[in-house]
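Hi,

Apologies if this is the wrong queue. I'm a grad student, and the batch job for ApeA N-terminal domain-containing protein from Chryseobacterium formosus produced an output file that my downstream script rejects. I'm not sure whether the problem is my script or the file. Here is the sequence I used:
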Amino acid sequence: MKKPFIRPVLDSEKKIMESAKLKNFIPTVKCLRKLALGGEFEIQLLYTTVDNKVVQQYFPLEILNSREQGLSFQIKLDEILDIGGVRYKESYGLDKALTIIREGDFLYTNIDSVINFKTEFPTKPQYLNGILNNLKTFQTSPKPSYTRLVIRTSDIDLTYPTDILKFEGNHLKFDDESWFYQKSLMGLPFHSTKGMSVDVTINGYKFDFYALEPLNSMIIDSVDKIDLDDFKTYSYIIRLCFAFLSGKFYKDEVAYILSNEENFETIDDYEYVLESPSIISKNQVINPTFFFQTFKNRSEQEQKDLAKYHTMFDSKLFSVFCEKVSSHPELLRTLELVVTTGNLSDPIQKGALYSVAIETITEFLKNQNQEIFKPIQDNAVSKRFREEQLNLLEKYRNEIDPKGFKILTNKINNLNSPTNRDKLVKPFELYGITLDNDDLTVLQQRNNYLHGGVPIDSNWKEEINANTLKLHNLLSLLILKFIGYSGHYIDVSGWYFMQLNEVQDIFRNVDHNKIQHILEKLKFSNEDELNIAEALEEIKDYNKYLKSIKLTSSIIKIIE
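Support response: The file is valid. Your script probably expects a header line. Output copied below for reference.
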């Protein structure tokens, strides 16, 4: 039998491996596989009979080896229980925190961890079927441990942290040596950035952030021992901030692995959680690969001007980003709204969420800089003006309905507040972002979105989608400037449009010579080109062509 080709390890690779950080994954994989395989258990149920007696009883339970997300299970009841509401999980006590036992080992769930419950009644034996969205080896909070988050994903184009974030040579090595390498197109293995991690620090806690091709998983490891609840909070923030940059929020099925050893050589505890579905979108606002590819095609002067931006997203700034999100709930909610739109197909629903996000972030920034937003910034002048208006109102007290008097009093007390328009526009001015007429128009469309309206008059759905994504651009600009970022960013509206098959067909099929000939023949003025072209059957999709050119003309932009 022919032996497989094994490339000898190069001296340069040996040197890298000497300083690389060891990551033990074989124990983690064994733990995950044992959980996935399921098997036969006993479950303790605590239920109430029709006579209002509380009964504790053990029943056979099988966790099924299913392809369905979550832990599918089946409980066998040899006898019909003396309960009411037989089709509800609450009647069997399955809404409570559960205890599951196998060979002396105990597993536990959170309260209300059973979903998709169903049963057939009356049958004998009776089977209770459902899915567990949580299972863990501890009943109370475990002691601080080295903690690892493993997020398995079905995304065939997994975005690695090192695809976007600066990794500064943080090489990793594994207890499975085949994981050191990635195969080239010729089939030969080589070291790659996929075997590297990003350092993240949040409020003094340090984390290794990376992904693994053999598991197709995103990984977050704590560098020090940490309380599990704190780890869950910070790892969620890391995932959310990365999702904002990448357009992908990996969730679905996750596992928290706890060890008393820094390199996870042994596993002491674990917790399985079925989260909401992953968000996989094309809303990637930072795309170093695309920027680098286009950079080399630019003129010499352009390359010189953009040289300082020819870099990945700084990992230290990413840590700052995460810390700001952990400190400001309003910023966290804004990111959640922005990222969530990635799973929506309806442009009106997207626009509504973006509009709420705009209101949230601008209100937050207003509260952070209240003095700047006041029309009268001198407090003494503001106070004197307000008192004069209240004194004037007092003269009319007997001539005004009490309810109306109270309303006017409140209005006077809030006279030194910005207008709704200023609340939206001033945060951009504050961070040096210049809004053109198109940007201002998009901001003013938020009320249309919030009330379920279509803000632009177009029968072309893709144009409405692109218009909605302009709100994403404005939100991205504001958030990136707030955290102190300077560099490239992607206009996701143009990026979305550029990748549409319909738009690519328009670009391929438009006959530029024919268009030029007709324009010259009819002597179109620049202002009339679009409207007249709509009436010409000879120039099919010319209106869409012009709109596509406008939307895709400048996809990569720079934040100073």
